[in-house]
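User: quick one
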Amino acid sequence: MQITEKKVSVISGGLCAVEGVEANGIHTGFKAQDKDLALIYFPDGATVTGVFTRNKVKAHSVLYDMKMIKAYTDFKAILVNSGNANACNGLNGEEDVQSMTSAVAQKLNIDAHEVLVSSTGVIGEPMNLKPFYAGLESLVGGLNTAGSTSAAEAIMTTDTVPKELSFETEIGGETIHFGAIIKGAGMIHPNMGTMLSYIVTDAGLSQNALNTALKSAADDSFNVMTIDGDTSTNDTVLLASTNKVMLDESYLDEFTAVLTAMCQQLSQMIARDAEGATKFVTVKVVNAATKSDAVSVAKTVATSSLVKTAVYGQDANWGRVIMAIGNSDAETLNPNAITIKFASGEGEVLVCHEGLAVPFDEGRAFNILSNTDVEIFIDLNTGDYSGEVWTCDMSVDYVKINADYRS
Amino acid sequence: MQITEKKVSVISGGLCAVEGVEANGIHTGFKAQDKDLALIYFPDGATVTGVFTRNKVKAHSVLYDMKMIKAYTDFKAILVNSGNANACNGLNGEEDVQSMTSAVAQKLNIDAHEVLVSSTGVIGEPMNLKPFYAGLESLVGGLNTAGSTSAAEAIMTTDTVPKELSFETEIGGETIHFGAIIKGAGMIHPNMGTMLSYIVTDAGLSQNALNTALKSAADDSFNVMTIDGDTSTNDTVLLASTNKVMLDESYLDEFTAVLTAMCQQLSQMIARDAEGATKFVTVKVVNAATKSDAVSVAKTVATSSLVKTAVYGQDANWGRVIMAIGNSDAETLNPNAITIKFASGEGEVLVCHEGLAVPFDEGRAFNILSNTDVEIFIDLNTGDYSGEVWTCDMSVDYVKINADYRS
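Assistant: Done. Structure below.
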């Protein structure tokens, strides 16, 4: 994974940093009091693509969006509610998706098939659409080109901060903008941490090209981030282009590089705000025999509860790291070639060299791991491939948050 | 998985319930003060087979035992130390295995190749054999036919109780005995919970037959138990027959059934005494399309941190269960056919019927989950196969125990 060398400026505005995007977020009644309904509106339309959860149990909104994006290329609105996942609700769940998209379309005076929808919250709880209908006037009426933050707030669950990001860059001699909101890793009322992200750009590309770029960017960002190894029924990333700046497809690689950098920053925002997390952890694997070996090792280390609790305890417990490496699906592993370091802004400490313990200063190692950003560096010494996965530590608060009764 | 219908009586004596088995356990110096060295001795020899960790990083003792069991069928002693895993110690680790087996062989006046060895404890820490040599006289001198409990104590790490089991049964008209000690799921000093189990029987069978029986029994017991999804570098199960009662191989299925029942009880002892565990959890999957689908679903549910923290919180949070089901590798899954119940000695509660929420009494569900033995029952409604996996809940203490600094 490499951060693009393209010059990118971080700008303000979130979603609305892109021309042709209005947004709003309000409280209706899916949650007790916080904002729970967001609307992203493209008055002149947008070409949209998406990547969705790989969980075999998918929420009704996910199934709907997948179908619509297959059938259509352009859309005008994305509606998102938090507080109810609308998953496992049977025919009622499907009907609720239809009712929600139709109602929004009517208010916006557009076609129902121009509306996409996402949900996050409790699974298997019937949707109560009354407060939704009651709030619709205010939701649509309040759409504006400074509404990104309110939309970011309305998609939060146990996220502790709203998350937005916007970029400006130059591609093919044109100034291109990107804006995004994201939420994830939270649960107070909901049953699991759903990741939802909405990314907009003015770079005009076909739906196919956008899809190629998004899949590639997601593989190098959202798909190499793990909080607890569980994938929700509702995960959704939508990429919308308002087509204000038409881009030749020969610039697709450049576009993908910037999109990837953006998705990487968005992913890291999620891991940093994960449930109970006290540390952001990068697991970096180098010199693997294949790319898939590198990623497999990094993911196995990043999902090991024993590794994550050790990091929480600031314990340079490399025995757990090598144990996790050995449990990975990597096909080429030589235990006697593995080298492990722990690193952070405080420095780095070599703890295992070619499969053997290296005497190290425990006080210094503890100090390195006391940083809030730590890296577990693994050299497999079996080839030329590398991979990186982002995660967080596992704290006492993680268990407390998730053992909390739903209601 | 079915418990054998064979009549089995639980008897006392542990390992030494079997004729031809002596044992002892003492403190030497691998641990600060507790017993840390066990010896199981077969004066007339025993046919031994084993199953070992699938972790690609294997301890020196594991590699040694695998090699010896391939080369020889009969052994006279099994030496086990706790407090140091002798893993990732390079050539020194290999030499220490040789030194330990040679020293024990000399004291017992047997050949070095008649000794097997296991270790459990910290990874990558050089072995200090001085206290071991100093204790050897007392270890061997104290061998006796009532020494099973002291051996069970000497292989403990954070286990809170020593674990022994012995059975008597009749096979082919002969009275057959089984004895075992087991440890696991503990860590104070060590880096991970290693599972070690030693099972003895007087039923005389070839090493091949014993191996067939042990593999089958392990698949239906140790391999369907999960504490935290991590597999140690040292896991070892040895099965030894003192051949006091020769058994025709036509009785192998009967023998396997009793051995399986024994291994199932041993596994459950581990899950009940797991780190920080407050509950023993059975995940039972029925009506799967294939055996592998059933086991995959049960394992994915049993290893989900979100499911395990919900059980700890006594929350009938079936949304997390269906999320985990959807994340399994099962090939045939129909989300609209899945039925989920929670059950315990307090009764059972249906929470999801054919993919849809069922209204239920939350107070009653909480009461059912307040039991220390709970079952998550999953009906996939796609076939005729079933599978069961045992685990425990994930508590605040699990994180506290594992975040504790090694030293």
